[in-house]
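Example 9 (inverse folding). The structure is encoded as follows.
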């Protein structure tokens, strides 16, 4: 690990808060296409929220030092990346809505979210975002294939895949915040 990729315990906790929150949202989105097994989605949502809450408590208890985004150029890169992500999601939502393809919105959003982790890894000093990008994009591809090849709602598959990927990495970053280690 070089200093340029260093993260503090606070950085890990903040990442776990954000990923845990969005993991819960993805499990919620999966409800749109699931008739049976919804209890498991609720369990996933609750676990993701618990990880986010634990990370929030951890964030208040660890030293206030931040390593990520201390450089203003990295902060700008972060803002531009998130801005492009938001614009692409809105553009895709409009196109899918106008074309009558709303069931594919979750697949589109998950794919954009997955891709956005790649340029965020650098300003956030978090190499773990690279495998997260791969997993979320793979989940979007699986949701697309399953949605095309079956009667399963793409939102269910995308929601479960997004929830599992983000929730798993939220737990991993919470562990890193609590352990005070950076194995990446």
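The amino acid assigned to each position is listed next.
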């Amino acid at each position: 690990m070089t200093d340029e990729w260093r993260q503090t315990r606070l950085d890990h906790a903040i990442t776990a808060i954000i990923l845990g929150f969005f993991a819960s949202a993805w499990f919620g989105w999966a409800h749109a296409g699931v008739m049976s097994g919804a209890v498991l989605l609720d369990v996933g949502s609750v676990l993701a929220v618990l990880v986010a809450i634990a990370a929030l408590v951890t964030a208040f208890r660890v030293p206030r030092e931040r390593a990520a985004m201390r450089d203003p150029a990295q902060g700008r890169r972060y803002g531009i990346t998130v801005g492009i992500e938001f614009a692409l999601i809105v553009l895709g939502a409009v196109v899918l809505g106008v074309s009558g393809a709303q069931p594919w919105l979750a697949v589109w959003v998950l794919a954009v979210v997955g891709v956005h982790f790649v340029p965020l890894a650098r300003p956030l000093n978090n190499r773990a975002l690279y495998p997260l990008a791969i997993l979320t994009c793979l989940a979007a591809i699986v949701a697309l294939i399953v949605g095309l090849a079956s009667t399963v709602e793409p939102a269910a598959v995308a929601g479960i895949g997004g929830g599992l990927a983000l929730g798993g990495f939220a737990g991993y970053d919470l562990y890193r915040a609590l352990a005070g280690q950076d194995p990446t």
